[in-house]
Amino acid sequence: MSEEGRLSVGLISCSGEACPGGTISRLATQKVLRSIRPGYNFVTICLPLFMAGGEEERNFARDYPTITIDGCEKCCALKATEALSGPVSGKVVVTDLIAKEDIGEGTLSIRELTGEQKAMVDQVAAAILEQVTKIKQEG
């Protein structure tokens, strides 16, 4: 728990810039961070800082429920979090939800997302919130 009895949940999203799933994972994470969920305190954890030795980030992931949001099957966020802080409380892998062919290749422009890509962001955000609900039910 955190301040005022709200559940703190860490979100660590993919940092792959050239990976379209990475862009979708970051946009979905931002959508969840901006969502109004009474009783929750969402905290985003910077994956590069986490991997470079950020003790505050690593301690948060060790002490609070944390969800990784990976853009592809490489699962860099998941692997780094488990190696440096221990097991995660939930995970979302964009390519498990959306076929790689549908996402496309290369960099996605945040300013030029298609309606289909915006729907993908919504789908991943919903999957993150499903993981949050599971954490709350298990806690």
Report on the architecture of this protein.
The protein has 139 residues and is an alpha/beta fold. β3 (66-70), α4 and β4 (90-93) form a beta-alpha-beta unit. A four-stranded parallel beta sheet has the order 2-1-3-4, with helices on both faces. α1 (20-34) packs across α7 (115-138). The mean pLDDT is 88. It is built from seven helices and four strands. The termini are close together.
Short summary:
This protein has 139 residues and is an alpha/beta fold.
Please supply descriptive tags for the structure shown above.
139 residues; four-stranded parallel beta sheet; 7 helices; 4 strands; 51% helix
Layout of SSEs?
Blueprint: E1 7-13, H1 20-34, E2 40-44, H2 47-52, H3 55-63, E3 66-70, H4 76-84, E4 90-93, H5 94-97, H6 100-103, H7 115-138
Parallel strand pairs: 1-2, 1-3, 3-4
Helix pairs in contact: 1-7
